[in-house]
Design goal:
By secondary structure, the chain is α/β, with parallel strands linked by helices. It is built from 13 helices and twelve strands. The strands form two sheets. A seven-stranded mixed sheet has the order 1-7-6-5-4-2-3, with helices on both faces. Strands 8-9-12-11-10 form a five-stranded mixed sheet, covered by helices on one side. Strand 2, helix 5 and strand 3 form a beta-alpha-beta unit. Helix 3 packs parallel to helix 10, helix 4 packs across helix 9 and helix 12 runs antiparallel to helix 13. The longest helix is centred in the middle third of the chain and has 33 residues. The model has no long low-confidence stretch (mean pLDDT 96). It binds pyridoxal-5'-phosphate. Pyridoxal-5'-phosphate binds next to helix 4.
């Protein structure tokens, strides 16, 4: 078995003859069959992985991309869906029935919380949130109707890590399915399936596409029944992905390891520098020894990517605005995972219900892009100076 970086360069159906290095883009809604028997066989196999039948149910580019993601995550089957959020909700859509209960980490990506608390709760699914650091204590929350446990490690905005093996053991003892959003690290730095998750969901929008120019989600699982059930549900709600987008995502996968390594190095360098600044109250980065879950990071992760949060030593919003607006190399925008650096003011108190975030000092989430780390640090320095300069200093 080759190492992940080798697999990602070579993944995809082998083609023969004189051919392009990367699988070419093939657009298609309708696919033609030579005989009626072939067409009927295609229809019968429409939920099978790799079967080309109708554009919505899978195209050659989608299958090539999905095979590569399965290699990345150490899973058996992957299914692409139109966005990362679609990937987050698909396992719940597939497996939770009215009357079932799902347990969701309190640091879940906020739009997914919206889907769980509004859409699914409205449709008869009981949703309970838990402290991301609950570990084996999740046993206390398991009830007979608990169908699914939803994780995200590290958590959005505040970067708490889960003890996935401990949580998965307790969930599996009750027959619940464990889903983990692995967008932050991808399988390259964090093998959530091997740690005990049954399904990995992720936004390929972020590091996989890597250039902030496409939306795509993907789920990965270990067995054919789970794949078929998710593919059927995905079809029920009419999901389909454009071959163009999965083609871009496949292209992104080829260079994912080198980009992630650079994001990791830049992110850590910025985080260490920021930790030494008096204007910064705290740096929330799981790769720093000061992070409360650093031991889990050392055990379960092989890298940290470029995303982390700093807490400014101020509660003055105007001062925080001054800081982020003074940055030249960090764009102000949502999402992350592209080659560019980003800064976003964030509110951790607003997006949680099972845990408290009472420290009012302002959080800024940073994404370290692929720029030169020294240039990024110089930019942060001038922006901190601009925002925190006091009269007479
Ligand atoms: C961005 C993000 C998503 C959603 O992805 P989209 O493609 O924007 O829908 C899901 N989970 C996490 C952790 C994210 O950061």
């Amino acid at each position: 078995m080759h190492k992940p970086a080798t697999q990602l360069v070579h993944a995809g159906k082998p083609r023969t003859g004189i051919r392009a290095v990367n699988p070419p883009l093939e657009r298609g809604s309708t696919f033609l069959f030579d005989t009626v028997a072939d067409l009927e066989a295609g229809k019968k196999a429409r939920l099978q992985p790799g079967n080309v039948f109708y554009g919505r149910l899978g195209t050659p580019n989608a299958y090539e991309f999905e095979d590569a993601v399965s290699a990345l995550e150490g899973g058996a089957y992957s299914l692409s869906v139109p966005s990362g959020l679609a990937a987050c909700v698909l396992p719940v859509l597939t497996f939770a029935r009215p009357g079932d209960r799902i347990l969701v980490t309190d640091t879940v990506y906020d739009p997914a919380r919206g889907s769980f608390s509004s859409f699914f709760a409205r449709n008869g699914i009981e949703v309970a949130y838990f402290d991301p650091r609950i570990g084996a204590g999740i046993k206390e929350l398991m009830t007979d109707n608990t169908r699914l446990v939803y994780l995200e490690s590290p958590g959005s905005l505040t970067f708490e890590l889960h003890d996935i093996p401990a949580i998965a053991q307790a969930a599996h003892a009750q027959g619940a399915i464990v889903v983990c959003d692995n967008t932050y690290a991808t399988g390259f730095f964090h093998q959530a399936l091997a740690l005990g998750a049954d399904i990995v969901a992720q936004a390929a929008t972020k590091y996989i596409i890597g250039h902030s120019d496409g939306m795509l989600g993907v789920v990965t699982c270990k067995d054919a029944d789970t794949y078929r059930a998710m593919k059927e549900a995905s079809n029920w709600v009419g999901h389909g992905v454009a071959p163009d987008i999965v083609w871009m995502a496949q292209r992104g996968l080829r260079t994912l390891p080198v980009r992630l390594q650079r994001h990791h190095e830049n992110g850590l360098e910025l985080a260490r520098w920021l930790e030494g600044r008096s204007e910064i109250a705290r740096v929330l980065h799981p790769g720093l020894p000061s992070h409360p879950d650093h031991a889990i990071w050392q055990r379960d992760f092989t890298g940290a990517t470029g995303l982390f949060t700093v807490q400014l030593d101020t509660t003055d919003k105007a001062q925080a605005v001054k800081f982020v607006e003074a940055l030249h190399l960090f764009g102000l925008g949502f999402s992350w995972g592209g080659y560019e650096s980003l800064a976003l003011m964030a509110d951790a108190a607003e997006a949680r219900s099972a845990t408290e975030w009472s420290d009012p000092r302002i959080l800024v989430r940073l994404h370290a892009g692929l720029e030169d780390a020294g240039d990024l640090i110089a930019d942060l320095e001038q922006a901190l100076d601009a925002a925190f300069a006091r009269n007479g200093d």
